[in-house]
Amino acid sequence: MTTRGADNFLVSQEMTTPVSDVTDETSSSSHDETKSTNSSPGGGQSTEHRLYVVNRAGTGEASYLMLTSDRAAVASYRLHTEIWKPTLDVTNFGVAVVDNFLYVIGGFDRQRARHLSRVVRYDPSEGTWVTCASLNVARAKFGVCAMGGMIYVCGGEKSDGRVTGSCEVYDPEADSWSKAGMLPQPRANPACASHRRELYCAGGYFGNTSHNNLWSVAGPTGVMSKVRGKDDRPMFLTDRRAFSYSTCISAMPKSSDTSDLISPWNLKLPAMNHARHSAGAVALGYKVYVVGGTSLETGQPVRIAEYLDTRTGIWEEDFNFRKGDVSNVACVLLAVPKIPVSERKVAYRLKWVMW
């Protein structure tokens, strides 16, 4: 059944994602024929653990690779691609996963030329999409991350084209959004991540300036505070540098040639092999993957996925995307039943009947 949801956007209350099609079976890896054999404890329904690379440029594509059962490594490099109708012609939306439900949040509708407050949720156990409560403020190009079973949205671009510093938090159990304070300054396209019950918001742009700020908020009801950063003139280069951050900041005596604080950033990590922006990133075991994105110098997508081996500190190229648009992507991990999408809903209901 199709209804009109938030922003007058046509959303089906129960939309089934098509069965995945293999779009690229070519890989330089020797793992191509490896099959995922992940099973639930006790011999129950078998599941696949997938690394999804979700296109945020409006193509509706969501490609995935099979992972090992512990999600520590890629099990098969055969690339599969699904078309997600809720993301067709929608750009710069947010993606988050809570309790193995995937949420597609906001974005910009290219056909209607408007920002969206729409939120839809994908249930991999049934292969269906449902409409959730809408954002309080329609927006795109925002930072998003999950923390403590909640989803946080930070900053972004509003319907009037202005960049905002407002934040919102979503409670999946109550299916409701509430205000979550303000960033110290407006930001579009910031990067957000959670660590030890703290939410970090880094970088982004405002006006004609790119920023290297790092802000944090402690706990779901905390207040954003500036940790480090100042406004610098933008560098029109695609940076290859990689950084790590520690929440431990050591004080040191203030002198004429030293700072009163030791920076929490480690700037000595090795550079990536391929400069890029708008890429997806995900940690698999001891490897930190950077996938897709665009080279600012050439304007072309970066089709080589690489990872940083945190044990050796060396970047390695892993696999290529030979098809599809990977110029603007996000990465998420999902566990999906190993049964056809068309049968998932029936199997799910039978399970509860039998139980």
Automatic annotation (TrEMBL):
Keywords carried by this UniProt record: Kelch repeat, Repeat
Residue ranges, compositional bias (Polar residues): 1-15
Region (Disordered): 1-48
One of the Pfam families matching this protein, by short name: Kelch_1
Coiled coil: none
Record bears the keyword Repeat: yes
Compositionally biased region (Low complexity): 16-29
The keyword Membrane appears for this protein: no
Protein name: Uncharacterized protein
